[in-house]
Structure formats: structure tokens, C-alpha cells
């Protein structure tokens, strides 16, 4: 039976689980979400692959904007 809380299948398709990479690399919220959405694109719901990539872009764009403006909350 799948464990959708601790080991969702759409994040465990390879040897590297996204959350472990995010923690190991010390990424914050924005960049962590970029990794999460890129990693799961096409795996959670193949019909939403492009949507996941756009979500990743959204978080990356926000991170870049905040870096440029140094407007971190």
C-alpha cells in the first residue's frame, strides 16, 4: 500500500528523494519548491507536467525578484 504522507510515489521514482536533496543543499522555501515541482513534473499527474513546471518557474521568478530587490520578508 502506498504511503502518500511519508513516501509519495511521485517523489520516489529515483534514488534521490527531492526532500533529502533540498535539506542536504540547505535550500529555503522558494528554491526548495523549484526542486520539488521540477522533480515531480510528469510523475504525480502526467497531464499536469507543464503546470508543475510553471509552478517551479513561479517560485524561481519570485526568488530572483527578491534577490534583485533584497526584499525578503
List keywords for this structure.
73 residues, mainly alpha, 55% helix, globular
Assembly annotation: single chain
Described by strand count, sense and barrel closure, the largest sheet is: none
The residue-averaged pLDDT reads 88
In the predicted model, the low-confidence regions spanning at least 5 consecutive residues are none
Order of helices and strands: HHH
Structure annotation, total helices: 3
Give the termini separation: 41 Å
Structure class: mainly alpha
- Estimate the global geometry from the Cα principal axes: globular
How much strand content do the residues show? under 5%
- Output the radius of gyration: 13 Å
Proportion in helices: 40-55%
Q: How many strand segments? A: 0
Q: Could you explain the architecture of this structure?
A:
By secondary structure, this protein is mainly alpha-helical. Helix content is 55%, strand content 0%. It contains 3 helices and no strands. The longest helix is centred in the last third of the chain and has 21 residues, at 49-69. The mean pLDDT is 88.
Amino acid at each position: 500500500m502506498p504511503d502518500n504522507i511519508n513516501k509519495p510515489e511521485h517523489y520516489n521514482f529515483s534514488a534521490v528523494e527531492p526532500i533529502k536533496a533540498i535539506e542536504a543543499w540547505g535550500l529555503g522555501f522558494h528554491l526548495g519548491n523549484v526542486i520539488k515541482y521540477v522533480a515531480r513534473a510528469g510523475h504525480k499527474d502526467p497531464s499536469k507536467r507543464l503546470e508543475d513546471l510553471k509552478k517551479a518557474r513561479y517560485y524561481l521568478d519570485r526568488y530572483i525578484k527578491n534577490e534583485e530587490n533584497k526584499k525578503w520578508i
